[in-house]
Amino acid sequence: MLPPELPPLPALTRAEAELIDRYLDVVDSLGRINPARPGDTYRGLRAAQALVDRAAALRDALELMHSRGENEVHAPTLARALRVLDGERRTARVALPPEPGDRLGGGAR
Hints:
- The chain is about 60% helix and about 0% strand.
- It is mostly helical.
- It has one domain.
- The termini are far apart.
């Protein structure tokens, strides 16, 4: 049985696509560094080292958009692209995990 087909990416400019890709690279690195998540320090160290280059690439993608006259971020379109690219799961790795036994995932109130 084949997995369900993913929805298509929305139409993006090349610069917007680069922005999304570089943003998710940064998010993935931050998720690996997150001290509230299990893992070894070497993995976090490697991710922190990579974060510097990935943040610079994100900056470059934004500079490219700006230099091309793309001065507005079209949030609804970019949010759809992030969802298609599993952005919700990937960005959740940056947040604090829910406390054990917390069904709502809200932590302390």
